[in-house]
């Protein structure tokens, strides 16, 4: 239905069933034009391009992101090449010698997992991790842990990268947490995948995401929604006072009065051009997050029904991590209308079986990815569910 928007990627990879959308999403064709637009703008403006980007292209992109997240102040949004840079900058808002007490989970993405564990090794932080499983009780257990001790920083994912399990009502969840700590939501698997409304949260939480996955602009264009507060991160770059460089005073470090206070330094803005192009395309095509999410859910249901017909001993719904999505009230397989979940489905198997299955599927043009004992299948609007074919699994049941 939407494959015409992705002809370049689809034609470059014929005979591939791409179920790794949650890892590297295909880009719509307009992003190639955006890359050339960036080159042409650079040729026309050279150094003057920065004024154009900060005065025109960046506000346009901020507005598109804000619209998707229901953020009332687009100027809260700041860009960076990756979310790691942003989370380290958030950490640098604490006093340099302070040992920061962090509450998080055992299922955060590698950037935060690795960095926080390295901080721990250096005795820079105290780390408390709440297991995400069993997920039925996760939100309650996390809230109880947050209230049980005094934390400086709370860091938690909206959708967990190793399962697709998602916080059901982000606003309600945040209200169960104490107000004193800095709260950061890793929204990378949430933004432009599941409907997200930050209107009640934009003033109090940091929300991190980017375009590598569901926003479909590729790597290099990450962002944070910055809450109220005059923050002065120690880890800072010249973009944080770009508009006031001519007013700098010796011995003083100034900061913007909006999200730009968390900006870094020179970055490749072609990524922002791609992100702008993809979000602008979705707006023009009427592809809201709700429309995309509904289409992906239907793709997931078609996939699960196809899988059930194969009757594979390992790759079946009994090993699906998102069991709560299956509606037991229906005789036929269906996804529950209630309950948010990511745009990928995760099967938990023995680690050796995961690697074997992923290799077997890849050899037959079915591209997935896996993390340890979890095999992940992602879904996108460039899928046609009628094309799903995992018959290669039938030969080796």
TrEMBL record:
<dbReference type="GO" id="GO:0008483">
    <property type="term" value="F:transaminase activity"/>
</dbReference>
<protein>
    <submittedName>
        <fullName>Aminotransferase class V-fold PLP-dependent enzyme</fullName>
    </submittedName>
</protein>
<dbReference type="InterPro" id="IPR015422">
    <property type="entry name" value="PyrdxlP-dep_Trfase_small"/>
</dbReference>
<dbReference type="InterPro" id="IPR015424">
    <property type="entry name" value="PyrdxlP-dep_Trfase"/>
</dbReference>
<keyword id="KW-0032">Aminotransferase</keyword>
<dbReference type="InterPro" id="IPR000192">
    <property type="entry name" value="Aminotrans_V_dom"/>
</dbReference>
<keyword id="KW-0808">Transferase</keyword>
<dbReference type="InterPro" id="IPR015421">
    <property type="entry name" value="PyrdxlP-dep_Trfase_major"/>
</dbReference>
<dbReference type="Pfam" id="PF00266">
    <property type="entry name" value="Aminotran_5"/>
</dbReference>
<feature type="domain" description="Aminotransferase class V">
    <location>
        <begin position="54"/>
        <end position="357"/>
    </location>
</feature>
<keyword id="KW-0663">Pyridoxal phosphate</keyword>
């Amino acid at each position: 239905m939407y494959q015409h928007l992705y002809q370049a990627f689809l034609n470059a990879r014929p005979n591939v069933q791409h179920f790794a959308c949650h890892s590297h999403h295909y880009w719509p064709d307009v992003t190639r034009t955006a890359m050339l637009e960036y080159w042409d703008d650079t040729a026309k403006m050279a150094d003057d391009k920065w004024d154009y980007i900060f005065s025109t292209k960046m506000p346009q992109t901020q507005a598109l992101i804000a619209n998707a997240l229901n953020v009332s102040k687009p100027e809260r949004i700041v860009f960076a090449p990756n979310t790691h840079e942003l989370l380290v900058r958030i950490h640098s808002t604490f006093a340099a010698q302070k040992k920061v007490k962090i509450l998080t989970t055992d299922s955060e993405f590698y950037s935060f997992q690795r960095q926080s564990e390295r901080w721990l090794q250096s005795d820079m932080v105290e780390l408390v991790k709440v297991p995400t499983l069993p997920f039925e009780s996760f939100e309650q257990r996390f809230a109880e842990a947050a209230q049980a001790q005094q934390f400086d920083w709370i860091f938690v994912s909206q959708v967990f990268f190793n399962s697709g399990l998602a916080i059901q009502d982000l606003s309600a969840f945040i209200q169960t947490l104490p107000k004193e700590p800095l709260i950061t939501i890793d929204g990378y698997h949430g933004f432009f995948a599941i409907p997200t409304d930050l209107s009640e949260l934009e003033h109090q939480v940091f929300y991190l995401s980017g375009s590598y996955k569901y926003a479909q602009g590729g790597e290099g264009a990450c962002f944070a929604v910055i809450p109220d507060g005059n923050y002065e991160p120690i880890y800072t770059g010249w973009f944080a006072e770009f508009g006031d460089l001519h007013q700098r005073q010796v011995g003083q470090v100034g900061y913007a009065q909006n999200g730009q206070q968390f900006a870094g330094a020179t970055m490749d803005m072609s990524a922002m051009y791609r992100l702008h192009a993809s979000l602008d395309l979705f707006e023009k095509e009427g592809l809201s997050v709700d429309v995309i999410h509904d289409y992906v859910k239907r793709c997931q249901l078609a996939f699960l029904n196809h899988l059930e017909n194969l009757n594979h001993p390992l790759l079946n719904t009994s090993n699906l991590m998102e069991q709560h999505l299956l509606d037991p009230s229906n005789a036929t397989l269906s996804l529950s209308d209630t309950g948010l979940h990511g745009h990928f489905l995760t099967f938990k198997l023995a680690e050796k079986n995961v690697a074997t299955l992923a290799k077997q599927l890849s050899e037959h043009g079915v591209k997935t990815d896996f993390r340890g004992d979890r095999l992940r299948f992602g879904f996108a609007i460039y899928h046609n569910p009628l094309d799903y074919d995992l018959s290669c699994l039938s030969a080796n049941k």
